[in-house]
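job 3f2a | input accepted
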Amino acid sequence: MSSDPQNLERRIQRLEDRASIQDLAVRYCLAVDEHDYDTLGQLFTRDGRLRTESGQVKGDGAAQVMDFYRRVLPNLVSHHFVHGHTIDFDEQNPGRATGMVSAHAESHRPDGQVIIALRYHDTYRQQDGGWRFQERLQSFLYIVPPDRYDGVLGGPRRVRGSDGEFAVADW
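job 3f2a | predicted structure (171 res):
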């Protein structure tokens, strides 16, 4: 192990950055669950984007992302759980990283209660002195009502839409 003070500072900074990005993912879940618009507005870069793997763009730019949350969250009660988080730093750009968050959520929406297994494929960027989401891509294994949970993994159509129809899962 090198005793180079600059190397030690870089390693400490990398650990601090990793902890900040992990906190960012947890703060996102709490802000969604608590309908905390002020916090949500601070979590995305100005050019931040929120979309799904199936192609739905929920917001392109922080203002559109916030419009999406203001439209959807008043009709939603949820509880998100973060299970694991991988983070890869961009060696060419120390202010950029990518990662994947594995999560579950319980949610009550206008079309009923659902249980959700998902992954967030994220791009993070430093802006205004902190780490922010530049992009969040939501990928769903399932979105099902509790009474349909048993056997949900037995077929490909396990993502319930707001119309009540089931679509093919993302993975």
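job 3f2a | The helical segments are 5-34, 37-43, 62-72.
job 3f2a | closed
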